[in-house]
Amino acid sequence: MTAKKAVLRRAVGAAFAIVLALAVAGPVGAGKKPPPTTGDKTPPTAPTNLRVTSLSHKSVTLAWDASTDNSGSVTYSVNKDGQGFTVPQGQTTYTIDWLSPGRTYTFYVVARDNSLNQSPPSNSVTVTTPPDTTPPSAPALSGSVRGPSQVSLTWTRSTDDLSEFVVYRIFAHGVQVTEHLNWYAETQVVLRHLTPATTYTFTVQARDLSGNTATSNTVTLTTEATSDVTPPSVPTNVRIVGSFGCPEFFVGWTQSTDDTDPQHLIEYEIYVNGVLSPLAVSAGVDQDFVYATDSGANTFTVRAVDQAGNTSEASNGVTEFC
């Protein structure tokens, strides 16, 4: 290649590089201003005249006058105490369910256009739902004696006008029973550690989420007499025999013996950190399921109980960590 041709090729290459740089840099690189943006930056007007058109124990229906926007299209969001609910396109009324009776709520509405520009909020409205004063239906109670120290109670399920959830409390002689309750189902319970040869009156109280209550009929039961005052032997070799992972464990033990009751009638109570497990006690077995209750060390012990309600001393303890 001659020197003249080499110089010419370098000049052509330099010119091409300048053209390419201008193409990449665009108008700004060439010293020109960028074109103005064309996006919509104008928010809709605020919705007005927010009002309540319907109110019940558990819902409210709101309505408002429409916003305007240069795009001609807006959607609305209803705000309930900081929680937003998107309203279907173009709709200027909305019903919010799952409120609670006797509670106060505050609402406002905002509008958004297709460019997500948001309007100022509407006026606020504050409503208080009517209180729930209607009790659930009264349960129908029946019962039977299970021996010197136990009775079984069964009742019909209560219904409530506003809630699907009804809880039950057990009363003996008008005083709520809080210990030695073994729930076999939502509407069946066994009361343990009652006094032999004693007459008891029982009722069941149904309670809804608003605290309204209804009380069942009264059932009178007399526990059997017994001369047995000797507790079973202490369960031994208490250990963890299985686990689904914290907090679910299976506790095992060597069964106790009793001077009066056969082994299959002896019941066992599992204590977690010194507190009786609320799960139903087991009878005539050597292991049962239990929940740990603490973060960290959980110590499980077992006591044996005979049909007269005599209770053994606590077993050795076994500790697991959660």
Can you offer a commentary on this structure?
- This protein has one helix at 3-29, and strands at residues 48-55, 60-65, 74-80, 83-86, 93-96, 104-113, 125-128, 141-145, 151-155, 167-172, 175-176, 181-185, 188-191, 199-207, 213-215, 219-222, 236-245, 248-254, 267-272, 275-276, 282-283, 287-291, 297-305, 318-321.
- It is mainly beta.
- It folds into four domains: 1-36; 48-128, Immunoglobulins (Immunoglobulin-like, Sandwich); 141-222, Immunoglobulins (Immunoglobulin-like), CATH 2.60.40.10; 236-321, Sandwich (Immunoglobulin-like).
- Strands 10, 11, 14, 15 and 16 form a five-stranded antiparallel beta sheet that branches. Strands 19, 20, 21, 23 and 24 form a five-stranded antiparallel beta sheet that branches.
- Strand 17 and strand 18 (248-254) form a beta hairpin.
Q: What helical percentage do the residues reach?
A: under 10%
Specify Rg, calculated over alpha carbons. 37 Å
What is the CATH C level class of the largest domain, in words? Mainly Beta
Structural class label: mainly beta
**Count of discrete alpha- or pi-helical segments spanning 4 or more residues:** 1
Q: TL;DR of this structure?
A:
The protein is 8% helix and 41% strand. With 322 residues, the chain is mainly beta. It has four domains: 1-36; 48-128, Immunoglobulins (Immunoglobulin-like), CATH 2.60.40; 141-222, Immunoglobulin-like (Sandwich); 236-321, Immunoglobulins (Immunoglobulin-like, Sandwich).
